[in-house]
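Fill-in record for MMPL family transporter.
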Amino acid sequence: MGYRSLAALISRYPWFIILSWVLVIGMSAVWAWKLPDIVQDHGLKLVQGQAQAVEQIMEQEYNFPPDPVVLLFHKHPDTSMKMFRDWLTESLSAVRTLPAISAVISPLDAHTQGRMLHEDQAYALLHMNAEPRQIGSVLKQLRELLSSDEHTYVPGTVHLTGKAVVQQDVNRLSFRDLERAEIVGVPIALIVLCVAFRGLYAACIAVMMGISAVITAMGVTSLLGYHLELSNFIINVIPMVGMALSIDFALIILSRYREELQRIYKREGQFHLGSNSTLQRELLQQSLRTAGRAVLFSAACVLLGLLGLLWIRLPMFLSVSLGATIVLVLSLLLNVTLLPAILSLNANRIFRSFLLKNSSPHQSAAEAGLEDSFWHRWSAMVMKHPVWMGLAGTTLLLWCVFPVIRMELAVPDASSLPATMESRQAAEQIQRNFGQAGMSVIDIVIGEKAKPLTASHLERAADKLRELKQDPRVTSIHSLWNISGSYMQLTIGVQGEPGSDEMRDWLKQARAADLGAGLEGIPIRYGGEAVHQDEIIQEVFQRLPKVLVFVVVSNYLVLLLAFRSLLIPLKAIAMNLLSLAASFGILVWVFNEGHLGMQPSAVAIMIPVFIAGLVFGISMDYGVFMLSRIQEVYRQTGESDLAVQQGLASTGRLITSAAGILLSVTVPFAFAEVEGVRQLGIGITAAVLIDVTIIRLVLVPSLMKLMGRWNWWLPGRH
């Protein structure tokens, strides 16, 4: 369907379009608020990896719970050890009565006392037989059971931790972060829009587009959550992406519509338009042909960035790509159907005040003041000194990029929660008091499903045990081989925390030694948190080049199609990559090095990938719109310098407003309680600030000046 047909359809059936969207949004709202209860953990796990396979073997063959809930018991100083043990027994007996608890590993069991009971502390492991969306209610029952003690004297305290508990806390805090961000961000975005449109009606409509896109996307995603495993990260990603993009799209279309309305008023001497008049259809058609086209290409660039995340085979990246794609598509559809339908019915009321103040039948105030605007004067100044301005901007960006070489990445764990959270404190106490600090627990499994053990397996196990005893980095061997029908299992402790270079080197050498043993057909697998993190890190780093190649090449082709130029897409992509690298440098400075009041910590491994996927496309949003206006003027005049000056002058205010809206949405997330969300908020904020200042105000006009007519060169075009 072309722009003309779409404009005619909207002009003819505006009420049908509006009522249809109201129905869809209303139905989605019913499901949207269920999303926090439907999402699962962070989704950082390699389903095809060894760690996942070993986890399943441990559960099926040895009844060891995967991702258990951990109960940490702490004895009061004046409590005797006998009373403490009796309390442990009573508490765990009560826990076993809960229907959702299928297994309990007690610190009082004979084979666990040395590892799970230490002085005045002990911990137990619980296996929950519950669906992910039921975990919250099970944990609530567990807390109520453990806190309701009939004794007048309680021998100690009990705290809950474990992956399931940590993820529930992350979900709860993420939703709280989202509520705070909306309370702060939406009013600020409304103020920015009021300034941009010099009126309240248009600003409210743009905000309504953003809220509608987010509600509808969260509702659709909630329904998909009953069939797919969704990462809890989408709770924040959908509103962040949806509010920013949908309001930006609305801003671009509303601004162009107002400009075309002003042009018609100048030509016709009146601005009262009928809902299905020829002038109304012309207005919608021109707005969709220009601003709608820019929005379409911008959405395509963002979509390609999101699709690039699918190269990484981790559920988190699939979830984020899916959620952000849904809200992107809905933002696009809302702004090219619902928004024009509203305008076709209410344009006179929305823009009446602006037209009366800023237009006359004889002269366009916007055109009259274009050459006197700050943006026109600034672009003229930059283009007078393109070499020096270009060097200054590039030097500043490279200075921001330099810290990237010191970037430290890690798989997020309980430390991503605030230090006051019970689940984090309990996890840290277990690491500190049960000999787990500075070491990793590794599960080793020999054998294959449905194949009985043979003498070769026993020989291999003996060789492996001998090898481990001689390895100085192996600090403990918790038991001899546990033998089941098809498997042999051993648990060891190794120097080096999960995710550390030391631990990754040990795993690499252990696997190499297994290959060198030459015993084919006798599989040996490694599992545990250290293996889990090693597989995630390898997956991200091995797949990242494919992500970058896909995003860069696909965006280049889209921009080549949009602007019919070889050099403009290259320049736009190079500027985006430089902007992203600079934002990563700021992340290192803030989090790895601990500035701006932050404690030094590693950057969550998914954050740079998400920033690259999201910001690469969002930056193209501004770039495509600005370059579209420059191209429009160039086609009219054939003068490259004039096109750059007028294009920047006519879009500078709009792009600044769009950036202000995006910042109003992302900056509140920089103060989130969950560290990963905080890192994402600061990273996107830094990237946007760099893009709308150094890139758009300095590097783009200076490079456009230096390239001159070569900006628009395409082989075979005359």
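KEY FINDING: The domain at 68-161 is CATH 3.30.70 (Alpha-Beta Plaits).
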